[in-house]
Amino acid sequence: MKISVITVFPELYRAFIKTSLIARAIENKLIELNLVRFSDMCEPKDRIDTPTCGPGSGMVLKPKVIAKAIGHCEEQYGPGYKIFFSPQGENLNQKQLRKFADSVLQKELTVKTNENMKFSDEDIHIILVCARYEGIDERVEQYYADSIFSIGDYVLMGGDLPAQVFLEGFLRYIPRVVGKKESVEKDSFSGPFFDYPQYGLPVEWNGIKIPQIVQSGNHESIEQWRIATACKKTLRYRFDWVRQSFLSQDEKKTCKSNIPNHYVALMHSDVVVRGNNGGHTSVTSLDLHDIARSSATYGVENVFMVTELEDQRSIMQEFLNFWLSKKGIEYNSSRFEAVKKVIPIKSFEKVKLFIKEKDGAEPIIITTSAKQYGYAKAIDYFSQGKVWECNRPILFVFGTGQGLNEKILKQSDYLLGPIYGFPNYNHLSVRSAVAVILDRWFGLNSRLDFMDK
Ligand SMILES: C[S@@+](CC[C@H](N)C(=O)[O-])C[C@H]1O[C@@H](n2cnc3c(N)ncnc32)[C@H](O)[C@@H]1O
């Protein structure tokens, strides 16, 4: 495989190509690396860059210099698959690296400037174009780029580190570049969970011991421990990755057992009603059904319908009795599955007590509000990992009427901000708010390209 790297600074690759596995891959003739300097592609005294057009300062590489450099590489090694690097490109991840490596190995790369071209065994040619300054003239990418990759949401001074990052990531998938194929396959981001924690001797270092189970020699228990530990760590730091991955039934179960129990309370007492802080609202069958079904979808343990008014609790119990009866179960068993988790209850205190008795710990209380109040620490929908780490049950509390009163808000550990779209309208029904919040909090949303597992 030939890899051409077009760069302003070939010297940045000096150590890179002479060290470690890359050097060995070159030595073993698995790859041939061809460094091309942009300034060698223009007349002496001519510049490789030109000021950007329009207001604003900055320079871009001249299109004709890039075209000449690409032409030069293709003359030497034949048509190449051209990769540009830009913070505006597709985010490079493990899946993409593997996909790219698979296409290389199966010679399925299509080159934009020569769509009929097929690479043969010897002539895989990849061209990496590394810009600097303000980047690349938009037309050059438009014309040449077969892929544009970003290595993260930050801006570097040039495309050389991205090119090296790409090479290290991609070449690990090329047979014989890395010694052990299994180690690549089990790495972080190859599946929904990180790699498991690794330990080497000595058994005790700085007072910290290798976990007993790892020393046990029991392969099955070690394997289970590794999966659970990797799952827990990924949930803590990269729930975004877990939720966009495709999860098998077993992986879903592992996640569920590593996430603390969640509960939902819908307050019909201790809410503000027409300015009255101690007001009560009526229960509705629509809320009961919809909140129960949303909660069942996301794996909430119980839904508490909280009202001090006995007649309201008995109305609710009557609704429930039907769905919990033989007739109700026969009529719609999936409704029964959801509704059986609903508990009419007298007060918020009793909710907390119930959870404490069931889970052995006080719940972390997360209130939600259509407006922002200063009662608790604000939390966003990206911080669930941090909350889960506390290993305590979590209770989401929703208000009816004009919202939760001070008494409840003051007890919250966290306050989730309002739900907004682009317009300023902010009047969701409570059952819709529950569905949106539960989905934002732990809804799974696999990316299509993660589903081909
Ligand atoms: C200073 S940057 C230009 C940034 C550009 N003005 C922008 O804001 O999108 C110069 C070059 O560095 C490379 N580069 C910088 N950050 C990158 C990233 N996160 N991923 C890939 N390439 C990057 C690209 O080749 C880019 O054209």
Question: Can you walk me through this structure?
Answer:
39% of the residues lie in helices and 18% in strands. It is α/β, with parallel strands linked by helices and 453 residues long. Strands 14-13-10-17-15-18-16 form a seven-stranded parallel beta sheet, sandwiched between helices. Strands 2-1-6-5-7 form a five-stranded parallel beta sheet. Strands 3-4 form a two-stranded antiparallel ribbon. Helix 4 packs across helix 6 (160-171) and helix 12 crosses helix 15. It is elongated, with a radius of gyration of 29 Å. The two termini are 27 Å apart. Bound molecules: S-adenosylmethionine. Residues 85-88, 131-132, 134-136, 150-152, 154-159, 162 line the site of S-adenosylmethionine (SAM). Residues 85-88, 131-132, 134-136, 150-152, 154-159, 162 line the site of S-adenosylmethionine.
